[in-house]
Amino acid sequence: MTKKRTRHTPAFKAKVALEALREQETIAELARRHKIHANQIYTWRRQLVKNVTRAFEVPEGNGSDASDREAELLQKIGELTVERDFLSRGLGRSR
After folding, report:
1. Does position 56 have pLDDT exceeding 90, yes or no?
2. 19, 30 in Cβ contact below 8 A?
3. Burial tier of 48 (Cβ tally within 10 Å: 0-12, 13-18, 19+)
4. For residue 27, what are the contacts with CB-CB under 8 A and spacing of at least 6?
5. What mean pLDDT is reported for the chain?
6. Using CA atoms, how far apart are residues 90 and 78, in angstroms rounded to an integer?
7. Distances (CA, A) of 19 to 13, 45, 91, 95
8. What is the pTM of this model?
9. Is residue 34 a contact partner of residue 16, using CB atoms and an 8 Å limit?
10. pLDDT tens per residue, range 26-44
């Protein structure tokens, strides 16, 4: 009989890894309490330490993405204005 693997949420992994970093309990105690293997806790703790700098990084390109989007929208507004004016002249209306 095979046992189905348990998928842990990122929030659970972070919680266990932080508990392991605090060192208030041993890894064995944490493993027993959370019913997971101690090696898994060591792996999650290592991943947390390795990726902790990402929490303080500023995402690059936020300003340029917004200005690119603004330029794209202004171009679209111009196209729609020209199209509206062309069609209104074709229908004999004056603007």
Report:
1. no
2. yes
3. middle
4. 20, 38, 41, 42
5. 88
6. 18
7. 10, 9, 72, 70
8. 0.58
9. yes
10. 999 999 999 999 999 999 9
